[in-house]
Amino acid sequence: MTGFQAPDHWFNSLDAEAAATLVTAAADLALIVDGAGVVRDVACSDDSLAQELRGHRGWPGQPWIACVTADSRAKVQALLDDPSGRTGPRWRHLNMLGQGGASVAVMASVVPLGADGRRVVVARDLRPLSALQQRLMDAQQSLERDYSRLRDAETRYRVLFRLAAEPLLVLDAATQKVVEANDAATLLLAAAEKRGASRGLLDAFEADSQQAVMLLLAQVRAAGRTETARARLLADGREALVSASLFRQQAASLLLVRLTFVEGEAGAAPQPPGREQLVGLAENAPDAFVVTDADSRILAANAAFLDLAQLASEEQALSQPLERWLGRPGVDMAVLLSNLRQRGSVRLFETVLRGEYGNNCTVEVSAIGRSVEGRPYTWFAIRDVGARLAALPQEPRDTPRSIEQLTRLIGKVPLRDLVRESTDMIERLCIETALEMTDDNRALAAEMLGLSRQSLYVKLRRYGLGDLGPEAEGS
Question: Which residues contact 74 (CB under 8 A, 6 or more apart)?
Fold first, then answer.
């Protein structure tokens, strides 16, 4: 610590009133404590801090140790017993008793005031730092929740990918190299390798069929829509229906290739060991799985879906429209199927599932549409997230706080409501930014935004921003 070089010269004319003004200006909270540790006077230079410490006017006459929370009493006693104040202040983190028993964090130090043991307690408000730490913690928890949700989604899709009885491959669109293949496709490539071919997709077909597959992949890359072609396998000469779809992932173009055997069930690809166990896993999985036809009527459903829909048997769900239980009637399923037609798959679509006897729950839906022997089918994975959402901290207002939250409302509320919500969100973000840039100086913030102070107070009250003092109440 370094001090003034000539304090006797610069402060020799300082009177009591000037000294009190100096202490009040230098500290957010100042206490005068006598030699017995009893508070004799209090000064608070911050209006918002004074509002939090609403009972501070009653502190004079009470021991200082009674004005802090239980966890800070030992620190206060240490400050009172420490005679080293002459060499420099010793700062300690204290929690002062606030309104309604709440604690207010401050950083306090004790400075000797005279020979009779009087001392000045100088405290700095730590609430802005505490708020910043809380925001950092909330952001970290939000990231962890997002990572967990992504891991769960990846696990579900890998299970679906492996469960498919048809050979499925993911190719790099530029090089046509196999990026990923399910068990059925791996068996086909391995069989082709035994015949002397490499493990590339084209090498799995006979020479006269490779040109048709190459043309198919080129058309898909150029047009971006799903195409189909017939080709004959090199391993056993079976004829297969090859379909391919283009999608992008991490700035790379990939092709999803699916093989359907023309012979039907008898000519399907040989099943790898454990395939029956994987099918049983889907039937008994904790998440709901549903397969629908082109009219969105249920063809198959596992036990988890029957539990959510409050159905006694699968026969009650068969041939029924999925919309009878999933989503709000006439809204969510239309949006879900529209996105499915445009993108080929849908991930983490949030909606509700209505039970047969009134048990509603919030769910996340992932879906993928594919054609089998020219007939379209849709696979749905439905996860109950009601318990998880209930454990998350809720926003105090319904106004969206980000573009991501706003886009989730598309298809769930009318367009005019979306426009109003987006306007409110932008207005709120602008006000918050202006207050941060001006260090909560509302006069400067109003000037920056081109508003009168009265208009700014109205909007602050509307969005629940800031601590509106008496001046705002009178405006």
Answer: none
